[in-house]
Amino acid sequence: MPQYIAMNRFKVAQENAEAFEKRWLDREILLKTVPGFVSFQFLQGPTQDDLTLYTSHTVWESYDAFLGWTRSEQFRQAHTGAGGGRTLMAGPPVFEGFQVLQTVTA
């Protein structure tokens, strides 16, 4: 079964960027306790029109493993109070999910 990548994109106003980053970097990471979890990255992208693009990038062993995460107690714990962080964003996060068709490594 192919790996699955789950990504959320966030646009954050410059004046909220530091608080947004701190919120992500200081949180408890529960992903490591979920079966099928492979890796996570929190990414900062370009700034345009005073908005910085951030992305969370999570790799799962399969789509079913990702679904297991979304239905888990760890998911509920990780997202408790997540709505409070929305005041730091310029709009809601945008979810994108991808089946991995090819992986090339060094």
Short characterization:
This protein has 4 helices and 4 strands, in the order βαββαααβ. With 106 residues, the chain is an alpha+beta fold.
Fraction of helical residues: 25-40%
> Could you tell me how far the N terminus lies from the C terminus, measured between alpha carbons in angstroms?
22 Å
Radius of gyration, in Å, reads 15 Å
Please write the CATH class name.
Alpha Beta
Label the CATH architecture: 2-Layer Sandwich
Series of H and E elements = EHEEHHHE
Low-confidence stretches: none
Portion of residues in beta strands equals: 35-45%
Number of strands: 4
Across the major sheet, the strand order is 2-3-1-4
Structure description:
The protein is 29% helix and 36% strand. The longest helix has 12 residues, at 14-25. It has a four-stranded antiparallel beta sheet. It starts with a strand and ends in a 7-residue tail after the last strand. The chain is of the alpha+beta class and 106 residues long. The protein is globular and about 40 Å long. A hairpin with a 2-residue loop joins β2 and β3 (51-60). The protein has one domain: 2-Layer Sandwich (Alpha-Beta Plaits). The model has no long low-confidence stretch (mean pLDDT 91).
